Each structure stands twice: as structure tokens, then as C-alpha cells.
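The protein record quoted for completeness.
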Amino acid sequence: MQLKRALGFPSLTFYGVGIILGAGIYSVLGAAAGKAGDALWISFTISSLVALLTALSYAELATTYPEASAEFTYLRKAFPRWPSAALVAGLLVALSGTATTATVAIAFGGYLQDFAPIPPMLAAWTLIGAALLVNVIGVKESGWVNAVFTLLEAGGLVLFVIVGARAEGFGEALASAPNIGVASAAALVFFSFLGFENIANLAEEAKDPARDLPRAILVSLAVATTLYVLVALAAVALVTPDKLASSSAPLADAARAQSPRLAGALGGIALFATANTALVSMLVSSRVLFGIARAGELPRSLAAVLPGRKTPWAATLVVAAVAAALAPVGKVELVGSVSSFASLLAFAGVNLALIVLRRSDAERERPFKVPGSVAGVPVLAALGLLATLAIATQLEARALVGGSAAAAAFAAYAGWRHRRGR
């Protein structure tokens, strides 16, 4: 049961950029501006550097073990005596992607109200159904849809930057000194960078994973960082940080100060951003479930592949069904918070797995290797582990409670399954 190798470097990069840009920048910019003030761009820079630490770990492990269900695979190889740890991590990643699909579907329904009087939940379910159809048809086809939507997302942010660059104070924020709020704002905007890790779960469908995966991960992160920093500079040039903080649609309100037409266009672009995020999140989650099922840790039926197209249709159907069930019962903030918690746990696990595998599997060829080691320990991976745990402490209580409850439930399932296997 193998997946079809159909993704080259451009497709992998579009997947990365598309899901990183997503809808996060539309929601966190205002709150972050309220904390960091004119130094908002510094917060984005700090967050990108923290994300880079984990991105490097993913790049090494993805090229060393190019399989679907990345986090599950890495932890399984790093801790063979504790298979439950790998299973819990894999299920958390699948939950994160599924919760993200539900979250952005809910947001899609809300954005659509400005253009058509369609019930938000009906719109959310329609989006989930459309994403299911495209992903089952084929990864190449979903890649084309993703590329178009990503160009629209990025184009909207570029237009915003162009409008902001015409403001009199554009660029003055570069001289702003860091303040006490920069660090907390960095923790907040960090979630706008989530998505680069999903490229690793497409390793089995990459034409040349050893060459293309590291480049796609790093390039997608670099593109997103550049856009985010420029957007931050444009936003504080158009309106004051206090006004951004008090707005429920900070990008649109900032654009409205200079260009009312662009403000309206950003609402339309948000539709494509949320739709694209739903498409890619469902794609990645299905690959995670497929890899776990193929390894025998979930029912084998979830590893079923559509003949000819080589897409994991059963796993994709399950992800879509769970996302559709989450949509009406979960609020955007709650479901999104649990998704963030699961992602951070996965990041910590990946960094720890790299540290362990550098010793336990030292002879294995590594097409890409994270630079800098002390006594055999990759320093950047260790820093990534510490940084990830530090950011996790900034999450709200509901994210910690909800995420911990999910982890406990998965751990109970893993324990039951392994006892049954023995």
C-alpha cells in the first residue's frame, strides 16, 4: 500500500506556503499589535526563528525517514520500547489537522455571510465536502487547487503591503526599540507559522524527497516570514497599534484607512485562505491516519488506497466526517486552541526524536543534516525543544485542558491496543 509520488518542489512549496499563510494572520495581528506596538515586526521575526529551529529538525527527519505519518514514524523509531508514545503523537497530529479543518470551515461560513445569505454551518459542511472530493480525486489535482488559492492568498497580502508602503510612516517601525510586550506577542503570532511541518507528511508522495523536502520546508517558511514582516510594517503605518488591537478584522480595517476597495477584497481573499487551509489540513491528516493504519496501530481498513489514483480514500473520509462533526459543536477559539496544543506537543516530540536518533541510528544516511552538534547532540534541535515548551506555557487554560484530555484519551486507547496485541 504505497502512495503515488506526484509532488515536485513547486507543489510541496505551495502546500507549505498555502497552509502557513492560511487564516491566522487575519485573526492574530490585532491582538499582537496591542502587545508589541510598533515593534510588531520584531515579534514576527522572533517567531519565525523559533519555527526555524523545529523546521530544521523536520527537514532532517523527513529526508532520513521519508514516510507518511511523519511524527508517528519518527517517535516510533526513536522510542521502540514505548510504541504508545508514537501512537499518541500521531493521533494528536491527526486531531490537530482535523480540528484545523473544522475551525477554518466555521470561519469560512462566517466570511461567506458578507457575500451570500447561506447558513454558516451549511457553508462549513459544503466546504468540508468539497475538500473531501478534491483530495480523494488525487494529490496532484489538490495541488493545483492549492497553488491557485495560495497565489490568491499571497496576492492579497502583497496588495496590503503595497497600500501600506504608500503611507507616510511606512518603515519607521524598523527603528522601534523592543519592549516588554514583544515576547508575549511573539508567542501569539507563532501560530501563524504553523503549517511548514505538514510538508513532512507528504514525504511519501514527493518525487525526490531527499532533494525537495528540505528546500520546500525552508523556502515556504522564508516566504511566509517575509510577507508577515512586511504586513506588520504596513499595518502599523496605516493605523495605530491601539486601533489594530481593538479591531475584530485588523487587516481589513487597516486597509480601509487607505483603500476601501482593498478592505472589501480582503474579505473575499479570506474565503480562499480558509478554503485552502481546510483542503491541505484534511490532506495531511489523512496521510497521518493512513501511515498509522498501515503500521497496524489503527484498523487496516483506514490504509485502503483508491486503485489507480493511489489516494487514501478511507482515511480521508474519516477525517472529513470527524471535521464535520466538530464544526457544529465547537467554537472557533476552542477547536483552534486544541489544534495549537497538539501541534506544539508534536513539535516537542520531533525535536526530541532527532536528538535520540542521532545516537541510536547514527549510521543511517542523512541527505540533510541540521548543523551544529555538541557531544553528538544537535544544539538547534535542543533549542527547538525548549522553545516549543516555552511557547506551550503561553496557551490559554482551555487549550491545555482540552489538549490534555485528548492526549489522555489517546493514551488510554494506545494502552488498550498494545495490551490486546500482547
Notes: Residues 9-421 form a domain with the Amino acid/polyamine transporter I fold (CATH 1.20.1740.10). Residues 4 and 308 are 9 Å apart (CA to CA). The chain has one domain: 9-421. The two ends are 25 Å apart (CA to CA).
